[in-house]
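Q: I'm writing up a methods section and want to include an example of the input and output format. Could you take the sequence below and give the corresponding predicted structure tokens, formatted cleanly so I can copy it straight into the document?
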Amino acid sequence: ASSIQNSILKAVEGLRYQAPDVSVQVTADGVLVSLMDSKTFEMFKLGSAEPLPETIRLIDRIGQIIRDVKKKVVIRGHTDAKQFKLSSYDNWRLSTARAHMAHYMLRRAGINDEQIDKIEGFAHSQLRNTKDPFAAENRRIEFLLRVKT
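A: Here is the clean output for your methods example:
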């Protein structure tokens, strides 16, 4: 797990100023890679699942590492607490759509569907920063590599 953590941090090193904030943690369930918006960078166009080019490049680099690890992956999408609502779209669908877009980007990096365990959308139900429900870091994509199973 720690070698995966080191590989991912090294792969994103050169993109730090042109990419989302990246956190890699070893958890009881495996290695959790979180890609988070910041005050100065957003991964997706506002209110959509269309990724910015920097996001695509970052997920491509991370995807190559995940592909080589050959462990099951859970893909999660999260939003902040700002209520986004159109007649047919809300925070739940937005978080799920972004998770599905992350799945597509991982596929482009060479990951096959047998490696995908789940694709989940959490809307704002699992905030990273509970003190500020509207904080940028609550808008994130997570990849959980199930290295413990």
